[in-house]
Amino acid sequence: MRLATVKIEQSAGGVLLHNIADAQGHKALSKGYRLTADDVEKLRALGKTNVLVGMFEDGDVGENDAATRIANAVAGKNVTLTPVRGGRINLLASTRGVLEVNDDALHEINLLDGITVATAPAHHVVDVKKMVATIKTIGLAIAESVLQQVERIARETPNVIAVRELRAGRAAVILTGSDEARERVEKTFTAPIHSRIQELGSRVVWNDYVEHDAHAIADALERAKTQNVDCVILAGETSIMDVNDVTPSGIVQAGGKIELYGAPVEPGNLLLLAYAGDLPILGAPGCVKSRETNVVDLILPRLLAGERVQKRDIVELANGGLLI
Fold first, then answer.
1. In which band, very low, low, confident or very high, does the pLDDT at 142 lie, cut at 50, 70 and 90?
2. Which of the following CATH numbers is that of domain 2-55: 3.50.50.60, 3.60.20.10, 3.90.105.10, 3.10.450.50?
3. In this structure, what are the phi and psi dihedrals at residue 155, rounded to the nearest 5 degrees?
């Protein structure tokens, strides 16, 4: 787009860069408005003889059309668009779920001139109609070549911004400890774990309490598997203090494989994540007994939404992982 100060008689087709007010200071014409021949007399009545406008050049796409194309390119599964206005369009969640953002694609798009795409924090739970991103074009026109780059990036990286729907899942909770500690452990851990699961739209279908012993934990996991559960949470009297500690040893005995022990998140450094086939097993640290936000709140929604969370996913929580 080329900027020029032109006589009002030659302004048709130009786009106003700034609002124009009347004698009372009220807005008479808005920035971004594309002038027509019919506006000449109105401009003259407003005391204008010249006006600063943007003149479209070959390959320019107006701000609203450009914003709409960008939004259509980056919007993935379970994301809808609001009407566009003034080069801005918002993306909304169409279901309750976990927001997913491809950071590499997002950064590559934002490096392009004239485009800004801002999102809500990834991996957080969003409700229906929650705004998950906003797109604003900078300037009144975007080059067609730039828009084609956005569309190429989105083709190569589908679902740049998407929402993974939370399922009505089935969870098992296994608590461990001594017989003497059972009442205290169950009283301390049961309510906060159950409430987390229920608030995410799932339910606990299997509860167990076993001795803090690898064989007992392995047997409990085998029983839990028979309940057709989508996730198992292990917690208890003592935190996991080593990757070869009692709880991980029990998981391995039950056919599980340790994905990660130790998370760059506080509260929650002593997290353990394992899988028995496709079944996620979350070895929760002691902070799970608190309803204050901790590592479990960053991982559990993703598991209940059906994501296979891997070591790298948890490592990437380090930036922002200090939650206190």
1. very high
2. 3.90.105.10
3. -65, -40
Encoded tokens for 257: 């494989």
Question: 10-14, 103-107, 160-164: lowest mean pLDDT where?
Answer: 10-14
d(CA 204, CA 197): 7
pLDDT band per the 50, 70, 90 thresholds, residue 202: very high
- Answer yes or no: are the C-beta atoms of 245 and 278 closer than 8 Å: no
> How does DSSP assign 33-84, residue by residue?
PBP-GGGHHHHHHTT-SEEEEEE--TTEEEHHHHHHHHHHHHB-TTEEEPPP
Angle of helix 182-199 relative to helix 295-304, nearest 10 degrees? 60
**pLDDT tens digits along 57-86:** 999 999 999 999 999 999 999 999 999 999
Domain ranges for the chain = 2-55, 60-165, 170-315
CATH fold group of domain 170-315: Molybdenum Cofactor Biosythetic Enzyme; Chain A (3.40.980)
- What pLDDT does residue 9 have? 94
In CATH, what is the architecture of 60-165? Alpha-Beta Complex (3.90)
CA distance 67 to 88: 6
